[in-house]
Amino acid sequence: MQPFTALSAAAVPLRMENVDTDQIIPARYLTAVTKDGMGAGLFSWIRYHPDGTPKADFVLNQPEYQGARILIAGRNFGSGSSREHAVWALTDYGFRCVISPGFADIFYNNSLKNGLLPVTLAEEVVAMLWDLVEEEPATTIQVDLRSQTVTLPDGQQHSFAIDPFRKICLLEGLDDLGYISSKEAEIVAYEARSAY
Amino acid sequence: MGKTLFEKVWDAHVVAQDEGAPAVLYIDAHLIHEVTSPQAFGMLREQGLTVRRPDKTFATMDHAIPTRGLDIALWPADAATQVRTLRENCEAFGVTLWDINGPIQGIVHVVGPEMGVTHPGMTIVCGDSHTSTHGAFGALAFGIGTSEVGHVLATQCLLQKKPRTMAITVDGELGTGVTAKDIILAIIAKNGAGGGAGYVFEYRGSAIRTLSMANRMTICNMSIEGGARAGMIAPDETTFAFVKGRPYAPQGEAWERAVAFWKTLGSDEDAHFDRELRLDASQLQPMVTYGTNPGQGVPVTGRIPLPEELADPAERRSLLSAVEYMGLKPGQAMEGQPVDIVFIGSCTNGRIEDLREAASIVQGRRVASHIEAIVVPGSKAVKGQAEAEGLDRIFQEAGFEWRGAGCSMCLAMNDDKAGAGKYVASTSNRNFQGRQGPGARSLLMSPIMAAAAAVNGRVVDVREMLR
Ligand code: SF4
Q1: Using an 8 Å Cβ cutoff, are B119 and B249 in contact?
Q2: Which segment of A26-40, B143-157, B303-317, B449-463 scores lowest on mean pLDDT?
Q3: Could you give the 3-state DSSP secondary structure of residue A186?
Q4: β-pairing, A157-159 with A149-151?
Q5: What are the pLDDT digits (tens) for A121-165?
Q6: What's the ipTM?
Q7: A124 lies in which domain range?
Q8: Closest of A184, A176, A187 to residue A1, by C-alpha
């Protein structure tokens, strides 16, 4: 997994609540048997017209937001289907961090396993960030996982919570498999005594 | 203090728990399907790993497959590739596969319980969010991502943080024409589509106890639509009677032991829940959704809210974007809303009981002339049973198309798609934008409500047909 320590980048304001994983990547992109190239399908229904041309009014298509690495979305981001393709699409497109007042559980977990940092901030802070980056798209936002802070150009700082174990995994780029495998003796013992 | 059903199952499956780390949780049954498994098998290959417990791993083909014909040569190339890839992976890693060409096939959450793989007290996972369905048996069952599918294949374990618990108590008696689907749609409308994030629901109360297993599965299935990863119902005689005698159910003396154990799983009297929610079943009405998340639902006699009725700006924004997509108006009554397509099926409502109920409404009637109506049984077994009972004839005589088993128009991965702008009266679980086809507009409802919509060509209160 790609480690995440800190990021200084521009952000895209996605002023929408309940963005489900079907919207992040529609089912027709799920026919792949690898993870590659998912970014092409990212938000495809809201990003493209049916004939495949980009919709000019969608933020991701606006020139001022090209190259942004942070997505700022409304509450309950990533709800619905468990498809990890949603995270692969976001990272393949270039996002490394999503800020929202709240994430759906499976999406949150999937993000952590792919080096995409989910940052939970209060509704008011997210609303303020939307205003800020809509007004000034070039605003650089600093996200530092070590200090668990989001810092704005004017020095304003907002802390976010993250599970300490998950923080270490992200900082060091560790995946769960190594940790679970280190419990092999316990797994063997469990299997010997379990009912099923 | 006593323990909840969830805590009993959780505690019994913790393999290791380091201070400050998530639990290493043992998984009793792992269900896989063609769409979310290929990259996980890819990871095993890259790292030279094997499937630790092929005997606890079961594969189905359901999401990508067309439901009009099983001749793979005629399929879209990518669906065929996924099916072939799953075959190769199951063969190479020794995993049981319920292949589309075999006698056992269908939606993973219909087939698992049918085969008796799902037992009370188990931990069950699948790379599919509706794994919550299996919680109807008193199992802890939840959806996982593809990375986690890889972890479970390799180790039979998952790293999990312990969720919180919410008791949802539904007491009282359901009125005529009000079903399990209406209970869960009402719960989600009340608690919000994201309201259950971080929680496991336990459904309890007299209205839940009287439900069949099919109905309990409908409710637990949509726990994820309320934001919870899992929903559970304490096992009882209804549960045991369902499991008994199925291919993977315990037999003989092992059965007696299992039932004795299962009887101990219910939440203790003095167990503590982090949150509680109550609902009076006698007050419920048939529900229908108007929006683009399953929390945006109202009783069929109700109307879409007005923005000024919602205090929360985020809810207002959600409402406005939903009605715009749906081509509906705030304040509009749902009764009378025209429908173009009717879809009866999915892991929420594709079981034999659902088809029987829908058929009872359709019998002797005709689908409205402008309506395209399809029935997609949840599994081959459901299809076979329905045909033995003559339900296929009832549906076909009324003008429904009778399909093979699969996910079909629930997620529009295959050729079963609703066109842009079409209104779909659907018994599935998700009304997300584009879920049933790009631009398609889903109205979620119960099987009898969907059947009534098919016959009338618009949303009607099914209770009027039952009088
Ligand atoms: S029927 Fe729909 S919700 Fe159920 S498993 Fe299939 S795609 Fe998912």
Answers
A1: yes
A2: A26-40
A3: helix
A4: antiparallel
A5: 999 999 999 999 999 999 999 999 999 999 999 999 999 999 999
A6: 0.94
A7: 6-194
A8: A176
Cα of B436 vs its chain's centroid, Å: 15
Domain membership of residue A1 (yes or no) is: no
Question: For residue B154, what are the β-bridge partners?
Answer: none
Query: For position A11, which CATH number holds?
Result: 3.20.19.10
Task: Determine the distance separating the centroid of ligand 1 and the alpha carbon of A160, expressed in angstroms.
Answer: 34
Task: For residue B81, give both structure tokens.
Answer: 């590739």
Q: Residue B434: phi, psi to the nearest 5?
A: 75, 0
Buried b (16+ CB within 10 A) or exposed e, A169-182: bbeeeebbbebbee
Give me B142's structure tokens.
């939840």
Residue recorded with tokens 């939970």: A120
Nearest-Cα residue of chain A relative to residue B254: A195
Are the beta carbons of A17 and B155 separated by less than 8 Å? no
Question: Does residue A82 lie within any of the structural domains?
Answer: yes
Neighbours of A186 (CB within 10 A): 17
Number of domains in chain A: 1
- The C-alpha atoms of residue A95 and residue A7 are separated, in whole angstroms, by 11
Alpha carbon A104 to chain centroid, angstroms: 11
Q: In angstroms, rounded to a whole number, what is the distance separating the alpha carbons of residues B164 and B228?
A: 10
- The number of residues in chain A equals 196
Ordered alpha helix ranges (H), B139-268 = 146-155, 180-191, 206-209, 213-221, 237-243, 252-262
Q: Tens digit of pLDDT for each residue in A72-115?
A: 999 999 999 999 999 999 999 999 999 999 999 999 999 999 99
DSSP, res B144: -
Locate the ligand 1 atom nearest the alpha carbon of residue B346 and give its number. Answer: 1
Chain B residues in contact with A28 by the CB 8 A cut-off are: 412-413
Q: What angle do CA B245, B109, B121 make, to 5 degrees?
A: 60
- B63 and A CB contact within 8 Å: yes
Tell how far the Cα of B34 is from the centroid of ligand 1, in angstroms: 13
